[in-house]
Amino acid sequence: MTITLAQLATKFLERPGLSLSTQQSYEFTLMSLLAKYGRLPVEIVSRQLLSDYLDGLKHLSVSTHHRHQAIIQALFNFAVQEGYLITNPIVGLKLRKPQKEQGEHTTDQRIRYLNPEQLDVLYSLVAPDARMHAIVRLLHRTGARIGELLALNLEQVDMSARKFQVVGKGNKQRWCFYSEDAEQALLFYVDFYRDATVKALFTAQNPLTKEVTRLSYSRVHGIWSDLIAQSNILKGVRLHDLRHTFATERVGLMGIEELRALMGHEHIQTTLRYQKVTSLRAEEVAHKALNILTKS
Hints:
The protein is mostly helical. It is built from 12 helices and 5 strands. The chain folds into 2 domains: about 5-100, Orthogonal Bundle (DNA polymerase, domain 1), CATH 1.10.150; about 115-250, hpI Integrase, Chain A (Orthogonal Bundle), CATH 1.10.443. It is about 55% helix and about 5% strand. It has a 3-stranded antiparallel beta sheet. A two-stranded antiparallel ribbon has the order 4-5. β1 (about 155-160) and β2 form a beta hairpin. It is elongated and about 70 Å long.
């Protein structure tokens, strides 16, 4: 079925679940693209055409330019999901670099995430501690914040659907979905180590008074500090870096607005930071592969 770019954009903007403000923001961003190419069938909208279009947006700041690219990529992700295209023509397209002549600079802010080697070491260290293993698995697989996780009661976790709802920043609720490996770790903890006398999902017993309460952040932080101190490769890694790892692993696998919803970000610019991280990670992997190939 042939569909024009303008028709695709209409379907994209009319999806259920989009807030009015997000819909208006996306519509405004796509307006100039549709003015030039809206009548074209989507299957002939090429990577080169979109790259040239983005290169022509020189009047935009680097952050706004990145936002334009992310929304266009989300539009074509939608086209793939709906069966209008086989592949997204701009997947993997590099983001525009800051332009010095416009006073733009790179930021020193760095998103910290765990690489596969660090994750392997971390999971081997937490394996003997059923409670900490469950916490780490859930943080890594859901992108939840540690405070959100510790605030949960057992009854708030839908074990059959592998999901739970948290209240994040701005008192906003969102669903978190976890994987089978996280399910196994959680069920093992609940069945054999969790104290059933309190409602909290994660419980702790005072070693002196024997009182059972909700597990506190300070106690988790102390356990975490002791764990990562056992390996040089984990030096400086924070609990919050598991949330960054979750997001970094999912860039390119889903639309940016879906990732934004899973992360509970108020502004899409916050979610866009992970695209840059993924590009850098891809470059690191490419160089590592080249080194291996050239030595063989």
